[in-house]
Amino acid sequence: MHQRRVPNVRRVRIGDPLDGTFRGHIRAMGYTDYDMARPIIGVCNPWSELNPGHWHFRSLGDAVKRGIWAAGGFPLEFPTISMCEVFHDISTLIYRNLMAMSTEEMLASMPFEGVVLLSTCDKDVPAQAMALATVNKPAIIVTGGTRLAGYYEGETVACSTDTQRFTWNYLAGDIGEEEMDEVEMNGFYNTCGACGVMGTANSVQSMAEALGLTLPGCASIPAVYAQRIHIAEATGVKIMELVERDIRPSDILTRAAFENAIRVQMATGASTNLMIHLIAIARRAGVDLTLDDFDRLSDETPFIADVKPCGRVTVEELYHAGGIRAVMKALSPLLDTSVMTASGQPLAANLEGVRIRDRSIIRPLEDPIQPDGGLRIVRGNLAPDGAVVKTAAATPRLLKHTGPAAIVPRNASQEEIDRALADITEDHVLINRYLGPIGAPGMPERGPAAMPRHLLRQGVRDMVRVVDCRMSGTSYGTIVLHVAPEAAVGGPLAIVEDGDKVELDAANGKLNLLVDAREIQRRLAAWRPPEPAYDTGYRSLWLDQVTQAPDGCDFRFNLDPAWRKR
User: Is-contact 1 283, C-beta < 8 A?
Assistant: First the structure.
């Protein structure tokens, strides 16, 4: 938990011959001495044709630069890698740390006095926040916003959450291929931006605003609205003020800010993936955030924003109800509003005059959708270091359940799952393992998968599942996630056998394998680790250095400066 030592910012001195080479290279790109007399501001733009969440970043980047020029700065734009979960062969979590490293190196090594970073998607926003916490130069994030809602036969639908529902109906034989094509073309995927529910992408955008790393109101504006361009330009103006006042991420990323962000997570039914990302960012900032903090704050914070996947409406509809800023207004009695934000003002000032436009969507604290944040940490002999259940997205009757284990074949197709699990009932507990940070590698979002088709055809839409991977924030179901230690490092999940009794008691925080302790020890002693998936390249570095989910899946050398001495 240490901040990186950053070199002094290099100022271009117009009359100094020692800076002549630097000036010459800048002039070669068409800039003038007038430009170089201004403070240099970096604009980090991970635009990519492989990321629909970032598709509109060319125009957003231009707007940011207009604001910087107008406020007296000299913007220089640069790229980093860009990630969309669906395009990678493995989970993009494996590349979050790579994006953080590349962003960190650019911020530390280039002569930027401040930086504006554009980001939308699941791992991109956390990667940038990790870099900011480490390098600690004045900075603001501009998020890319949400997709517009879709409509199908009079119903508001959004990608991913409703995609899962329609897919299961298709697998069950309730709808055909023609209807699936129609709803995909006309409902799910209408515009660029984040998936239109409180999935991980919209969750991390909300997280950035709740932490104070964006301008107020930034998180929920739909990607294609003109207001998104307006706030990008305003951010370009604001970064010059932060540079002038020397307001840095270390002034913003305090323990109180992280607790505010967790409360917003609970109030909106946001993605469980935030637990991994917030812990990683916090520890880069020197804040020792743990699973117990999430458990405690979930108990104390009601779920009040009726947004999918746990509620009724899309994020576009949440925006029209007031957005994340209005959610924070409703939560304000539970928040620390004295914290500094990227507006240059404390949170209290950002919330002045904020109006909740639809109280059926953003409910008051005294009339919540449910009285807690819908998240529970569970431990026991099956998860000694903890696991998480998103109770708000689960089937209530399954949150206290004991049933026989059924092992899901690793990396199996739907057809292979159908064959292997042909005899199980809805009372079984599905065990999906070797999918953790090292086992997959990269902890893919396979938590909701693995239900055999014969149960879907019987109308079953949920079962208890115990996994060492993640699930998309768009997903739902009674799924015990992030089991730690994972199977690939010898966690107890590795030695579960078909037919073993598994107990889940979410209310009391329990997850246990009901097998004699001596038998468990015998199996663990006989267990052997799988061969590493990679032995060269960045992926090999990931396998060597990644921590488990309760430690944020960051690299060990970022958390322990004495690592090289061992």
Answer: yes
To the nearest 10°, report the CA torsion of 104, 105, 109, 114: -20
Residue 380 near residue 511, CB atoms below 8 Å: yes
Give the tokens for residue 243.
Answer: 């540079």
In a 10 Å sphere around its CB, with 0-12 CB exposed, 13-18 middle and 19+ buried, how is residue 197 labelled?
Answer: buried
The domains located in the chain, with CATH, are 17-149+192-350 (3.40.50.2300), 150-188 (no CATH), 376-531 (3.50.30.80)
CB 531, CB 520: distance < 8 Å: no
Report the alpha-carbon distance of residue 121 to residue 97 in Å, rounded. Answer: 14
Query: What are the percentages of helix, strand and coil residues in the chain, rounded to 5?
Result: 40, 15, 45
Choose among 420, 407, 479: nearest CA to 448. 479
Q: How many CB atoms lie within 10 A of CB 18?
A: 7
Q: Do 289 and 296 form a contact (C-beta atoms < 8 A)?
A: no
3-state SS assignment for residue 301 = coil
Q: What is the C-alpha separation between 449 and 151, in angstroms, rounded?
A: 26
pLDDT, tens digit, for every residue of 374-399? 999 999 999 999 999 999 999 999 99
pLDDT band at residue 1 under the 50/70/90 scheme? very low
Q: Give the CA distances from residue 49 to residues 56, 63, 208, in Å, rounded to whole numbers and listed in that order.
A: 10, 19, 24
Say if residue 251's pLDDT is above 50. yes
Q: How far apart are CA 535 and CA 312, in angstroms?
A: 46
Residue among 271, 348, 374, 356 at smallest CA distance from 319: 356
Q: DSSP letter at 193?
A: S
Amino acid at 11: R
Q: Strand pairing of 400-407 and 376-380?
A: unpaired
Name the strand (E) or helix (H) holding 57: helix 57-70
